[in-house]
Amino acid sequence: MYFDNRLLETLVAYADNETVQGAADELMISQPTVTRNLQKLEDDIGVKLFNRSANKIELNTTGRLAAQRARELLDAQHQCIQEIQQYNFGQHHILLAATAPGPALFFTAHNPELPHIDNDLLEHNEVGQALMTYRYSAVFTTEEIFTDTIESFYIGEEYLCAHVDAKLLPADKGTVTFEELNHLRFLVLTGLGQWQTVIERNIPHAKFISQNDRDDFLEIIDNSTLAHFSTNLSTGIVRNTSRRRLRITDAEAILPLYLTYLISEKQRLQPVIDAYISAWPNDDALTMH
């Protein structure tokens, strides 16, 4: 049996508003049209959906079930159309996302010819759905995913550094541990992804001053002695040379990064995988924020 979407939409709108007037206003149609649509849907299904009296109409228990199923049908149809459109778009474009900010920061600045990486971070538990619905062609993840339909390919590692006022350090110091940083005050950008968890877990007694805006962050860095963090993927020119960049040696200061994708798309994505591996920074002398 085929149901006209307009009839289903009218039923859902009536269930949400509980009045003919409210459904009419939501759908921007007349009240008589709402009444006709509800009556036609009831006739098409062949069961009573409403309790009617002289001045009132309300959904009965069967009607409430019908409204719930109508909502599910409309949502499924919308999802189906969206997935088809996203799949078609993805056949002509490579769409990437990440669960950590480093890849987008680095490759946008240094390799703009590579596929764009969305700045909106995904949570790890969102990756599978984002791939299966063709929202993204591949996702940079800090954990491997292997299922019957998804796999991960190792691209490189991102490691964490601290920039600390040089006056507080011995002249020959080039590395540091989290324990040594636990008493400092840090200026941090929001949106650090998994690094936020790593930092807060390993230096719980440090004080963090958060900034949402990157320009404001850089201005404060230039005009203060606050410590801050960088990685081998973060970019920018450190204009305040009063700090020394120290690599953090703890194991948790390193995150592996993988490109995670649908196995069915691997052949199409292989040139992209190879390009990111080739472009991954391996020069520790990069100047970073």
TrEMBL record:
Gene3D superfamilies: Winged helix-like DNA-binding domain superfamily/Winged helix DNA-binding domain. It comes from the Bacteria. Keywords: DNA-binding, Transcription, Transcription regulation. GO terms for molecular function: DNA-binding transcription factor activity; transcription cis-regulatory region binding. Coiled coil: none annotated. Pfam families: HTH_1. Belongs to the LysR transcriptional regulatory family. This is LysR family transcriptional regulator. The lineage of its organism: Bacteria, Bacillati, Actinomycetota, Actinomycetes, Bifidobacteriales.
